[in-house]
Amino acid sequence: MSTLLIHHPSFLEHVTPIGHPERPDRIRAIDRILEHERFQALEREQAPVGTIEQAALAHPEAFVQEIKDAVPETGLTRIDADTVISPGSWKAAMRGVGGVCQAVDEVMAGKVKNAFCAIRPPGHHAEKDRAMGFCLFNNVAVAARWAKKQHGVERVAIMDFDVHHGNGTQDIFWSDTSVMYTSTHQMPLYPGTGAVNETGAGNTIVNAPLRAGDGGAEFREAMEVAILPRIEDFRPDLVIISAGFDAHHRDPLGQINLVEADYAWVTAKLMDIADRSANGRVVSVLEGGYDLEGLAKSVAAHVMTLMKA
Ligand code: ZN
């Protein structure tokens, strides 16, 4: 069965200052590699505009409105040291929200087996009521809550292999035992959270930190020892991937040395678990990844693996 690619030109309209790593060229690099004929079988759909109600599944509605009101008519508005919004940011963020919900809808309906959402701005640092770390709304948290609300899904497992810890996703699901949040990430590194002893109110948060200099062997061991068995035991009805590719060896923001084959490997492992408890349902959502070549090649390996379902 097929793999859905969610994309939209609006994701180029969220503009950041010159030299900022989270830039529109990231989407251009992904679009370019996915145009190759080996990706011809992808089902391609443009992300629809999401609703404030959808964003408010993961955030207080007042916070969503606050972001909307902060969007400048011209120029850039800084929200924190490294998070900015531009005139096109609201549309990009809402297409991101709409895109992940659409991916959930199609995967839950069985129209496609799995989906990859090539969206920006990323989301996993966005806490309940705080935009930070390049992130405005927590896209994967919206997707998980949408699956529960709209499709009656009981358990969602999120696996976040971005090099940074998804403090926002952890914050949102800290006391929500229907959603398991698992993460590998470099530590110490921004944002500073993600220690092994951060396990959530109901022991459904699983953090497996890596050290600077670690590579594929340490990553795979962390996955096999600490994370995959926990997701398997949780028996998720849907697996969501916070797919950041900044643990790639070329990436300027982290010091983990993953290669494309590691991303293919972890994708296949998560698909295996999804096959056993979730009828194969996987929704993957782009987070970080700041070296354009490393990002594009890693996305290609990830999506090519999803297409083998
Ligand atoms: Zn990251």
Description:
The protein has helices at residues 25-34, 52-55, 61-70, 89-108, 139-151, 167-173, 216-234, 260-277, 292-306, and strands spanning 3-7, 43-46, 77-80, 83-85, 114-117, 156-160, 179-186, 205-210, 238-243, 282-286. Helix 4 packs across helix 5 and helix 8 packs parallel to helix 9. It has one domain (3-306): Arginase, Chain A (3-Layer(aba) Sandwich). The strands form 2 sheets. It has an 8-stranded parallel beta sheet with strand order 2-1-5-10-9-6-7-8, sandwiched between helices. Helix 1 links the parallel strand 1 (3-7) and strand 2. It is globular, with a radius of gyration of 17 Å. The chain is α/β, with parallel strands linked by helices and 309 residues long. Helix content is 38%, strand content 16%. The model has no long low-confidence stretch (mean pLDDT 98). The longest helix has 20 residues, at 89-108.
Relevant terms:
9 helices; Arginase, Chain A; two-stranded antiparallel ribbon; 309 residues; alpha/beta; binds zinc ion; eight-stranded parallel sheet
Give me a quick take on this structure:
38% of the residues lie in helices and 16% in strands. With 309 residues, the protein is of the alpha/beta class. The chain has an eight-stranded parallel β-sheet with strand order 2-1-5-10-9-6-7-8, with helices on both faces. Strands 3-4 form a two-stranded antiparallel sheet.
